[in-house]
Every structure is written in C-alpha cells, then in structure tokens.
Amino acid sequence: MTGSLPAYNFAYLDEETKRMIRRAILKAVAIPGYQVPFASREMPMPYGWGTGGVQVTASIIGPDDVLKVIDQGSDDTTNAVSIRAFFANVANVAVTTKTAEATVIQTRHRIPETPLREGQTLVYQVPIPEPLRFLEPRETETRIMHALEEYGLMHVKLYEDIAKNGHIATTYAYPVKVEGRYVMDPSPIPKFDNPKMDDCPALQLFGAGREQRIYAIPPHTRIESLDFEDHPFRVQEFDRPCGLCGATGVYLDEIVTDDRGGRLYACSDTDYCEERRMAGHSGPAL
Amino acid sequence: MTTDQPLLIAKGVTKHYGARTGCEDVSFELYPGEILAVVGESGSGKTTLLNGLSCRLPLTGGQVSYRMRDGTLRNLASLTEAERRFLMRTDWGFVHQNPADGLRMRVSAGANIGERMMAVGVRHYGRIRETADDWLTRVEINAGRIDENPASFSGGMRQRLQIARNLVSHPRLVFMDEPTGGLDVSVQARLLDLLRALVGEMGLSAILVTHDLAVARLLSHRMMVMKDGRVVETGLTDRVLDDPRHPYTQLLVASILEV
Ligand SMILES: [Zn+2]
Fold it and tell me: Could you tell me the residue range of the domain that residue B107 belongs to?
C-alpha cells in the first residue's frame, strides 16, 4: 500500500475548504437553527453515508480529539465502522465507542443515552434539512417563510397527522423550534431524543452534504417540539426494560433473535447497554 | 351597504410586459361591502389588473392604496413583504379559477380550511377542526368528508372548498378570478347562489373578474368594462347592462342577448 495512497491533508479536506466550512459553522452557531448554505465537497463515500456530517467533523476535528461514530445508536454498523476508520486513517485521531470519552461524536439517527457534557460536539448527518419541504417544495418560498417566521405549515402537517391517525404519528425527524425562532428538522432521530436537544451542554452541529446546508444548536439552547395544546408532544414510551441490561427510559430496538419469531427488545445505544452490563446490570432476557 | 370611506383606491394602475400593455391607467375606488365586476374578453387585461391590485404582480405605474383594519390608508407598494403576506392570508382572499391553484391538493379538506388559522397561531386542534367542520357545512360540503383530500372532490366541491379556505379568516376583501369558469352550468348556478349568500352575510367587498356578464349581473353592484387593457365603461351593473353606452359594451351585451 505504501506509495499508492494519495497524499491527504489532515482530516482529508484541504485547509481552505475547512476554513470555508468553519465559517459556515460559525454563522450557524450565531443564528441557532438557521440553515447556512456551504459548498459541499465530494467525499470518498456515497451521499447516503452522511457526507455532510463527515465534512463538518473533518473541519472541526483536531489531533487531540477523540472520535465516536454511531449509526442507529450502534458503533459497529458498516456505516459507523467505515466513517470511524476513515477518520482514524486521514486524521489519525483516537477513536472510541464510549460516549463519555468522546470529544466529537458523529451520529446518524440517535442521540446517545449518556447525557452529553460541556466540551463535547455532536455532529448529525442530515439527509433533508428543510422541515417545510413536505408542503412547500419551492426553495425560494421556504426561504421567505423562514425569514418571516411563517411556520403555520408545520402545524398543517401535524394537523394531517392527527386527522389521519388520531394522534401525531410523526416519530422521526420531529420538527422543533430553536430558541423561539427558527423551525428545524432535527434529522431522522426518534422523537424520543428530542428532549435531549433542549438545554444540552454540548454543541450540536448538523451537516447535509447533498443539500449543502449546515445548521447548529449552541450549548444550552431552548428546543421545543411543535405540537397542539390539545395534542401535546410526547415521546415514545416502552412498556418493558432493555432485555440485556434492564435499563428503563431508554430507546429500545426490536431485534429478531431466531427464525421462530423470537424477539428481543434492547437498548439501541449499544455502548450504553454494554456499560451497564459491565457495571453488573442485567435484563430479563439474560 | 357602503360606508363613506373607500376600502381600496386604484390610481392610474398600469402594467406593461415589455412593449406589450397588460393594463393601462385604471383608476377606481372600492367601498366596503361593494362587489365590483371587471368584465371583458380574454386579453382585455382584466386578470392582469386583478393580479396587480392584489400584489401578485408588480405594477409598472400607478398606485393601489388599501385601508388597513386599523383604519389607516396604506400604499400597498410601501408595505413590507411581511405585512403584505400577512394581509394576503388574513384580510384578503383570492379565489382562483382553477381550484387546484388555490388549494393544497395533497392535504385534507380540514387542513385546507384550517391553514389560515394555523398561520395566525391557532394551536388547538379541536378548535381548528370544529371551525373546518362548520365551514364545510357553510359551503355545502358534507362534513363527513373533512379528512378527504380535495383530489377526490368534484370541480364544484373543490371550488367551494377554495372559497371556505379563504373566508375562514373573515377577510374584508376577496379577489376572484373567473370563480365559476370551467364548471358545468348547473354547478355554476349553485356556486353563484352560495357566493352571493356568503358575500352578503359577511359584508365582504370583492373584485370579481369574469368574462360572463350573467355572473357580473348576479353578483356585482358595479361594473368596469375593459378592452385592450383600458377601462371603456364603468357604472352600476344594472345600468351598464341595461343601457350600455360605449359601443364595445353594447357589442358585448348584444352578443349575450343573441344566445
Ligand atoms: Zn440495554
């Protein structure tokens, strides 16, 4: 392999590109929830792998950082493993699966169960950054709607949800209002995780590669999930603990355990589950 | 029916498309509760005028002033975009000839009606639904169809839904562009009756564009006849239709009588 690898700059992106992305990030932090356009670069991976998040991570990561990458709460899906390996390779940074040890956490579809702390940065991979797109496909129009705080359409969507399902059936990418101003798509995390965004001590950055948008939630920002007075926002509730570690009040995945219909409900956050089991907790399935 | 202060004042309203004239030097005053019909053949500039008056098209010349709810008369061109958009979704209505242009075809009838309420911050699902229910009944749509998308509605129902969607905010002024165009004659008649009743009940002012003199006769108090972008005759509707003075109006009226 020696000699065949092209010479990459630290963290793959050249310094000029990183500066451009950092400027977008700074602007995003200054205007919480506002989508800042940036010139997205081609990355050596398909868009579906979160190139927006990867570019954000590449622009903020330093040699002393410790990186964790999760996908659906797990550190060991192909996507998570590949992105982690990519950064270990092009930035030579320390990697971890432990939430508490990480300084930068890149994620798709979850916020870790272990509460984040000051000094950490959570980088979300975002497929579709525009929460208004569902009812207004015109970009020129959605931009005006954000500028003028015309967010009635978000409630039209929730209204439809209730009319068709009897309750707000949106469970992923549940829209939020950031610091009382911009309405934002939190990326396809379960609405279970929405409350974790509120007043979070960590910095939250969102990168959409294909759509070329970056947005941010600075530490300790007020995040409200949209709802109706008579249909208030509620997170998913699970009527059982994690089968492996016995945790309650966490987000569970259903896992098919055999071909006879056996099922296991376990923490989607694999690191959290392991930590608990190491600490001696165990669930009913064990 | 009318009060002493005009609701809308148009002065020298002009719209050019490059070298082509859309409408030229149109002036009039519209009073509260008054229905003004703008009639003419296609290409006469009546739709251009309607779009210019309702801020949907920037004017080349002239000025439109509107009396806001607080009583002040404002030049529409001086409103901020936020004020203009707020006006358009609260104090104004716009009924398109093709209901699909004025409805959200991919959400339910209830959401179509409720949209204006949600736009001004109503956050109570039950109340929005109750109002939508009430409006469906008022426009003679079975309230049982509240959760259906307008795509499943007939042309006449869609048009009635579009009207409900506009009137739910209790606008003071409604712009209508051939509201009965494209509908069967019997459906048209029912819609006209409904429109006349609603407009009367709510004390609405309206500017109605139509090529159909019968529609103008039934709905409007006053009429403006347009030809080649200019107003050629204006007056009380009955007077214009019974005693047309301009040769063009005489021609229009005669052509109806022949049918
Ligand atoms: Zn567990």
Answer: 92-170
